[in-house]
Write a structure and sequence with these properties.
The chain is mainly beta. The protein has 2 domains: 155 residues, Immunoglobulin-like (Sandwich); 172 residues, Sandwich (Immunoglobulin-like), CATH 2.60.40. The protein is 6% helix and 34% strand. The strands form 5 sheets. Strands 3, 4, 5, 7, 9 and 14 form a 6-stranded mixed beta sheet that branches. A 6-stranded mixed beta sheet has the order 15-13-17-22-19-20. The protein has a 5-stranded mixed beta sheet with strand order 2-6-11-10-8, with no helix packed on it. A hairpin with a 2-residue loop joins strand 19 and strand 20. It is globular.
Length: 404
């Protein structure tokens, strides 16, 4: 199969999707379903294609843990499993999230550890993974100094589980409290998210965001990929960067993330999965001949134009629904959007995937080792190719360079 040229059924189904406006509308589930909402238009990408049915590749989120939650089935004890829930048992996949403040290394320079807010000691929070048809539930504990909520973004949850403070959830979760949200069955498979919906200009921009992937139980072999990576786009404004400190004093720990920058509103640090490229710890290793999937969620204040060097990106899904496959060079991603792009690994080397806004590939407008892009950048490394220079991941800015 030509991986970038889908079989006719994919094109026909995607064209029908466009004619329907690529939209989703709410429908009430069957009586006794707890008000579950289903998507009544649109085609899940995983349901397109041809060939035998195979298990999906489990997505990875570089630098961020994955969380399959805990299956609570009746009868039986809770299970920790990455497998789908048994279809012949009544099960709910329960995710426990704790919102708190903590230090996280988001860059090598001009700051390193920043005081952020997140879930389960990570920003973005752990990538939640569930399967088609499963009932899911969030249990939120608030260890912040302020009230908060959690909102499933794009999953067609019932209104009682929407988590909007003062509206669908009139009383947010108070510090020290735990709140169990109503369970529901997501409307369809795809890439989605969860985030705070309390005091959004502060809480979301300090890091209370995370990805949520609903996988099919099986998919056609023609749309199966070898590697599947989740990438959440964020931006941070560490206090030390904006304070006018001498550069040599900026390599400090615990500097507070101020939610929004003044002046032009230009965030000094842009990240993928909560880390700039230089602080990512290493490249993402792929193999020649693989088909690689990148799932993108924009949790930041700004749009980003995501570009992969050396390969065609092929847009295959938006917000969980199939789209007519488009071969492209860059993909613009607005705040709150989800895009899925695939590429064929057919050009060995070290290739960057990055935002094409120049300031977003710098740390506080400073480039990396020998002028390399940092910021909102990740590197794909082909196994067997020359390694990425180790200095890229250890460089600490101009202040770390020896005097001439």
């Amino acid at each position: 199969m030509q991986w970038w040229s889908p079989p006719l059924p994919v094109v026909l189904m995607a064209v029908v999707l466009v004619a329907a406006g690529c939209s989703s509308s709410a429908g009430t589930g069957a009586p006794g379903s707890g008000g579950d909402v289903q998507s009544t238009t649109g085609v899940a990408y995983e349901s397109t294609g041809t060939g035998p049915m195979v298990k999906p590749t489990i997505p990875q989120t570089p630098s961020v843990p994955s969380d399959f939650g805990q299956l609570q089935c009746s009868p039986g004890a809770p299970l920790k499993t990455a497998d789908p829930a048994p279809t012949k048992r009544s099960c709910t996949r329960v995710f426990h999230l704790t919102a708190s403040a903590f230090e996280q290394k988001i860059a090598n320079f001009p700051v390193q550890d920043v005081m952020v807010w997140g879930y389960n000691n990570s920003t973005p929070g752990p990538t939640l993974i569930s399967y088609a048809g499963e009932r899911v539930q969030i249990v939120l504990t608030d260890n912040l100094p302020v009230p908060t909520t959690v909102h499933p973004h794009g999953l067609h949850q019932p209104n009682t589980a929407d988590g909007v403070a003062g509206i669908s959830q009139p009383d947010p979760v108070m510090p020290g409290q735990t709140h169990t949200y109503p369970s529901f069955v997501p409307g369809h498979t795809g890439t989605f998210a969860y985030h705070s919906h309390t005091d959004g200009p502060v809480q979301e921009l300090r890091g209370l965001d995370g990805a949520w992937i609903v996988l099919p139980r099986a998919e056609h072999s023609s749309v199966h990929v070898n590697d599947d990576y989740m990438m959440t786009l964020q931006q941070f404004n560490p206090e030390a960067v904006m304070s006018g400190m001498p550069v040599a004093n900026k390599l400090v720990n615990g500097t507070l993330d101020v939610p929004f920058p003044g002046g032009t509103g230009d965030f000094p640090l842009s990240t993928v999965n909560g880390r700039t490229g230089d602080a990512s710890g290493g490249p993402i290793t792929i193999h020649k001949g693989d088909v690689v999937r990148i799932r993108i969620y924009n949790a930041s204040q700004n749009s980003h134009s995501m570009h992969l060097h050396g390969h065609d990106e092929v847009l295959v899904a938006k917000n969980g629904h199939a789209v007519p496959p488009v071969r492209e060079t860059t993909q613009d991603v607005a705040p709150g959007d989800f895009f899925t792009i695939d590429f064929k690994a057919d050009n060995p080397g070290n290739w960057i995937f990055h935002c094409h806004f120049p300031h977003h590939t710098a740390n506080a407008k400073e480039s990396g080792y020998n002028g390399a892009p940092v910021g909102m950048t990740r590197i794909f490394h082909y196994a067997g190719s020359a390694p990425v220079p180790v200095q890229y991941f250890t460089y600490q800015g101009q202040s770390s360079m020896p005097a001439p």
